[in-house]
Amino acid sequence: MQIERHTGFNGLRKALSMNPDELIELIRNSGLTGRGGAHFPTWKKLSLARSSQGEKIVVCDAEESEPGTFKDRFILEKNPLIVVEGIAIASHIIEARQAIIYLRGEYSFLEEGIRKAIEEYNKLFGDINIHLIISGGGYICGEETAILNSLEGKRPNPRNKPPFPVEKGYMDKPTLVNNVETLAMLPLIILGDYDPDLRLFSISGNVEKPGVYEARLGITLGELIARAKPIGNPRAVLLGASGGVLRYDPNLVLTMDNIERLGGMLGMNTLIIINDEQDLLQVFKHIAEFFVHESCGLCTPCREGNPRIVDIMEKIIDGTATSRDISLLERLAKYIADTSMCGLGKASTKWLLTALKYFPEVFSNAKSNN
Question: Does the reported pTM lie above 0.90?
Fold first, then answer.
């Protein structure tokens, strides 16, 4: 796999011999975008952070809480050195002298390997203080400003933007927040070993061999899932909890544009396969309950809207839902998506909007009972 290459800190050595502006241009030409789901151009975030004034911080977002997603865990387990190297390169570019790895609490078993990687960096370089912080947990902690609040000892609510973290982040200092995989790509780009079309896919669900698979964008869903050996007849594919749900189509070409055209979001390349033996209504209800449980409670649309969705899903399951309930379900989904404060809230009903579109029979069967 591309991500398992051991660079021996040669990417960092080369980066230290280059002008930061040259490095930003190199990253720009690579086409790298954030691998945490938002796909914001990495070079642009680096450039904005570099142009900010004052003491700067780099934060590595290792709070990987999206259901069915475990690619960052794989990277940190198999090659933590390349993540530390990427952090050091980003720090060099924006002229930061402090960095933080914000690690999901459930990933604490990775702590020893990460600390060893930091120690190895310190022996060879050591001009940047890299701290490892274990997260208190929570889906919302994956949102970049919620991470900052958590690091400051506050409740991990998202912040209003602007100002953006690159202007005013951790302790009001300019802060670059990037995902594990994004930072791990930097050494490969600098060494010329980066393939922009390669992606890590987390595959789980009704498959015999769940795991992380490396494939190029443009592969068909059928080709990719065949590697994981599907169990039974695949019916649906969940793109994590927040990426939507699509009908299983083995000929679907996996690119960001294709998935977006269908109303979904490839995001962190998460694929949860659901076969025709599963009760989709129960699956959908579990997703709705997940967002109720993980809502930070700060904004009204997400805090109040998602519990109403659970209520209606329960009515559909027990056969008491009316056509008015189904209509309300769609209106709620759109309202929450349009008016929630943060990106996580806005994506909390993508599963429902796509489910209503691609699995109308699940809901129409429920309506026919009334």
Answer: yes
